[in-house]
Amino acid sequence: MKLKSRRGLSIRPIMLLTLCLTLPQGAVSQTVAAPSPQHSHPRGYGTGWECDYGYREASGTCVAIVIPANGHSTDSAFGPGWECDRGYRTAGGTCLAVKVPANAHTADNSFGRSGWECDRAYQELHGACVAITVPRNAYRADSSFGRGWECNRGFRATNDGCVEVIVPTNGYLQRDGSSWSCERGFERIGEACLPIAIPQHGYLDDSGGSWKCNWGYKKNASACAFLSVPVNAHVGISGDEWECNRPYHRQDGKCLAPQDDSAVAVPFH
Questions:
Q1: Of the candidates 43, 78, 97, which is a domain's last residue?
Q2: C-alpha gyration radius of the chain
């Protein structure tokens, strides 16, 4: 009996060794973390690593960010990792000095108008800053885009100036100051405001620029026609159409009673 127990004990280490040798190599290596590359450090949260300042990841390594002359690091994972100093603009991986034309100033960013903007009262034209000519009845607009001026209230812009907005009788100048509308009860016809002709059994609607028919009447061209309601029907919620009373249904301009299911013949089987 003692001999059998000794043999049993001696077999266990051999079985354990055999099991380890037959395990896939990845099963053991998965528990071992891959070493972090040079110029990196552990992440401040979670697991893994990130590159040191001045370096960025590339194919599992950390490579130095090459900053051109007259540039500086942005400490960002997006873009090239650098941007040009003020007074310089990006050009093919380098920083070139911004050439500021007369009547212009350097912009804070290196994009847009090549790193510069025109001074107030000037606008860009073919890489230069030309003076804005403000026509009569206009004022200089505080904007670097567009024509550089806006018309005074009561005038509208044309290609080269501001023309007066002619407001007809019974009209008023709109909020934008460059167009007009008719007063309540009048409608625009051409360049005039004419009274709205309201037919009998009609009224001026809430907008003041059109009319509606009273309840039970239907709009027909320029008149309000009486709404003829058939038997077993009523005027609908819109006021100018009719609907059948329940349980009647509409058919051919009438309201017909539903068929009695009990009166329908059932074929014999």
A1: 97
A2: 43
DSSP character string of the chain: -HHHHHHHHHHHHHHHHHHHHHS-HHHHHTTSPPPPPTTEEE-SSSSSEEEPTTEEEETTEEEE--PPTTEEE---SSTTSEEEPTTEEEETTEEEEP-PPTTEEE-SSSSTTTTEEEPTTEEEETTEEEE----TTEEE-S-SSTTSEEEPTTEEE-SSSEEE--PPTTEEE-TTSS-EEEPTTEEEETTEEEE--PPTTEEE-TTSSSEEEPTTEEEETTEEEE----TTEEE-TTSSSEEEPTT-EEETTEEEPPP-GGGSPPPP-
In this structure, the answer to whether residues 213 and 249 fall within a common structural domain is yes
User: How many angstroms from the chain centroid is the CA of residue 65?
Assistant: 36
Band of pLDDT at residue 154, cut at 50, 70 and 90 = very high
- Band (pLDDT 50/70/90 cuts) for residue 21 is low
Tokens coding 264: 């329908």
Please, what sign has the CA dihedral across residues 254, 260, 263, 265? positive
Domain that holds residue 181: 165-195
Q: Model-level pTM?
A: 0.52
Is residue 218 domain-shared with residue 181, that is, in the same domain?
no
